[in-house]
Design goal:
The complex is a heterodimer of chains A (293) and B (396). Helix content of chain A is 72%, strand content 4%. Chain A is built from 11 helices and 4 strands. Chain B is α/β, with parallel strands linked by helices and 396 residues long. Classes of the chains: A mainly alpha (293), B alpha/beta (396).
């Protein structure tokens, strides 16, 4: 039982990072119906910017997080402007392929700039070590990761539900043309969505590299894919769904590793994607929406 | 659109400056040629008369540190031979390419070395998977090849032209298991290995077999995939079985990652590993403290051959202490060059026969070859103490 709870704690640790990334996927999908496959690479960029802010600029860790988030937000907006905006009226598959292209471009650009070698994220002294509660050991970094991701989800929910920008987002998501007719600046709204999503991706990247010490150009691919499955599992486009999906993925992954076998964990995780798509394509939190004619 | 482009370009520029200022990345040169300028006989134009030897090493990627060490050491060996007048009056030209630790890339650079550069012998590749890819091609082309460090059993099996300068995985894994039972008195051990890697699986299997033969119990035999970053779940599972030792036969980056998480989950074990651990003390000294691994040589070995090599290497490369990979790279180059000298020609078959008959005192121990082309020599067990490598025992 203790082992089981311990594995769940490690699962929540991994899952909250997936949740952060999944939030970015889900926001962008919710508004422009685009699966932004470059999102995993935003995570990688966030990790690099965090690393550079700490090692080159010598900034303290919280400031490095802010910088990584800001720079990633800027890159998110640029990617949207350069790659996705011109394709807004093109078939959806074109935008999807472009997203893959952007993903490859970013990976390879970082290989050229930084080389393939694995860089070590410096240790953050106040995040080192564990806290023991009732015989269970909880890494300090877990508190930070879980706290930040829940805070981010609440903030996002607030922005989407309570603010004017959020209202505009919901309107654009519902009907882009009608929103435009109502005087909503659609381009600006989409741009803000990308900025928010990418900032979360950047945050996820810094936290990921702190939890797993290492930074390299291809580090975003696998967590990106897992977060995508998380977003689909929770119901893509739904913010609490992405959060829930992330935690479920992390917990399933760790239980698989702990009680079945490490070699099986990825197979089982991606198997979930197939099952969800077969039996409940709209996801756990999704409603079955009927297409209006 | 123009404005967007301008923004991007300026960002890219800023970014490049930041990178250049921050992390001076080692420039990857495609082709480097070692010539010795001090040599009085060097007047013979190196291109016309030089003996061309190829070198394939990974200089980018996960194991870049290995490739760079092997390259430096091989250059040193070639420079020493050239300074002493070359081989039978001819200078040696070393042509080096980066294979990015990738099997497909290794094949293409091998073809380039043979077709364009017309090499007579090959030193490399460094890691097992790439050596397994190049071996059959070297055999077919009749180019004698010596891998400094490919430890997988199958690298040399069935090939006449393929040799190596290091001992093989079963031997290494078995020695670590023997060390664990005899020197550490371990009864229970767990194994955590990369199931997608030939090197890692080879060592894991050998360790398991020897450890069980000696009466020990393997509590966990866990594989993981190459992209795994989170080992906390599986380490917690291992913790439940209470092993005294944990054998992790992988390369330094992954080993460092796992060692950090061993501490995080509070697993109290002695960590054991193979030669892939070399250099792990540089970035992960704190979490690796007290770990043991099998290696090819120890820098604190008092043998004069070892100390001479270390002095020469430090002199050539800003006082850097050579790692085991460098020692093997140096040995491999010395074996190959000595064989070309003995053969008295650049004929592939003559060189092959000469390598086979090698009987040489090398940095990583006295070397002779068995019928497969694998060397027969001693193994050093190293302990990591305060970020330093200390020779614990030499196992024959």
């Amino acid at each position: 039982m203790k082992d089981f709870l311990q594995q769940i704690i490690y699962g929540i640790n991994a899952g909250s990072i997936y949740a952060l990334i999944a939030l970015g996927y889900t926001m962008v999908y919710g508004i422009v119906k685009l699966i932004n496959f470059a999102h995993g690479d935003i995570l990688m960029m966030g990790a690099y910017f965090g690393l550079l802010a700490i090692t080159v600029l010598g900034l303290p860790f919280p400031l490095a997080i802010v910088i990584a988030m800001l720079v990633c937000a800027a890159f998110g907006m640029i990617i949207n402007k350069v790659a996705y905006k011109p394709l807004r009226n093109a078939p959806r598959i074109s935008a999807l392929i472009t997203a893959l292209g952007i993903s490859m471009f970013l990976e390879n650009y970082f290989v050229v700039q930084f080389g393939l070698e694995v860089r070590k994220m410096p240790e953050i002294a106040w995040l080192k070590g564990e806290v023991f509660i009732g015989g269970l050991s909880i890494p300090k970094v877990t508190f930070l990761i879980v706290g930040l991701s829940i805070a981010c989800m609440i903030a996002l929910q607030f922005i989407v539900r309570k603010t004017k920008v959020g209202k505009a987002m919901r309107a654009v998501s519902e009907d882009m043309q009608a929103a435009k007719l109502m005087g909503i600046n659609v381009d600006k709204t989409i741009s803000i969505t990308f900025a928010l999503g990418s900032a979360l991706g950047g945050l996820g990247g810094v936290l990921y590299s702190v939890a797993y010490y290492q930074v390299e150009p291809y580090m975003g691919i696998l967590p990106g894919l897992k977060a995508f499955v998380a977003a689909v599992l929770g119901g893509i486009g739904i913010i609490p769904g992405a959060m829930f999906g992330g935690f479920v993925m992390g917990i399933i992954e760790n239980l698989t590793k702990g009680f079945i076998s490490s070699s099986w964990s990825n197979a089982i995780l991606f198997g979930i994607l197939i099952l969800v798509l077969l039996f409940k394509p709209s996801g756990i939190f999704g409603k079955n929406t009927r297409e209006k004619v | 659109m123009k404005r967007a482009l301008a923004i991007i370009l300026s960002l890219v520029m800023m970014f490049s400056i930041l990178t250049l200022a921050g992390c001076s990345k080692e420039e990857v040169k495609d082709k480097e040629v070692v010539e010795d300028t001090d040599n009085p006989e060097g007047e013979t134009t190196p291109d016309a008369g030089a003996i061309k030897v190829g070198l394939i090493v990974p200089k980018t990627g996960q194991v870049a540190q290995y490739g760079i060490a092997v390259e430096n050491a091989a250059k040193l060996a070639v420079a020493e031979v050239n300074a002493a007048g070359g081989i039978n009056g001819q200078q040696v030209e070393l042509i080096s390419y980066d294979n990015k630790a990738d099997a497909a890339e290794s094949i293409s650079v091998f073809n380039r070395l043979v077709d364009n550069d017309k090499i007579v012998a090959l030193i490399g590749p460094v890691i097992s998977s790439t050596s397994l890819a190049v071996g059959p091609l070297a055999e077919e082309a009749g180019i004698p090849m010596i891998s400094p460090t490919a430890t997988n059993l199958n690298v040399t099996v069935g090939y006449d032209y393929v040799f190596r300068a290091c001992y093989i995985d079963p031997y290494q894994g078995g020695t670590v298991a023997k060390f664990a039972t005899e020197n550490l008195g371990a009864k229970k051990a767990a194994i955590l290995y990369n199931s997608g890697d030939d090197y890692s699986t080879g060592l894991a299997e050998a360790f398991k077999a020897t450890f069980e033969q000696a009466g020990g119990t393997i509590t966990n035999y866990e594989g993981y995939t190459v992209d795994d970053k989170d080992f906390k779940a599986v380490l917690t599972k291992i913790k439940g079985n209470g092993p005294e030792a944990l054998f992790v036969p992988d390369y330094y980056n992954t080993v460092g990652l796992i060692a950090g998480q061993v501490k995080e989950v509070g697993l109290d074990v002695t960590m054991l590993g193979g030669d892939g651990w070399d250099d792990v003390q540089k970035e992960y000294a704190e979490v690796m403290e007290g770990g043991f691994f099998a290696n090819h040589y120890a820098a604190d070995d008092p043998d004069p051959i070892v100390q001479d090599f270390i002095t020469a290497y430090k002199g050539a490369y800003n006082g850097e202490t050579p790692n085991a990979l460098a020692a093997l790279g140096y040995d491999a180059a010395k074996i190959m060059l000595a064989a070309i000298q003995t053969a008295g020609s650049t004929d592939g078959d003559a060189i092959r026969a000469a390598i086979k008959a090698t009987d040489l005192d090398a940095v990583a121990g006295h070397i002779t070859f068995d019928e497969n082309g694998d060397p027969l020599k001693a193994i050093s067990m190293i302990k990591i103490v305060a970020g330093e490598l200390k020779l614990e025992a030499k196992v024959q």
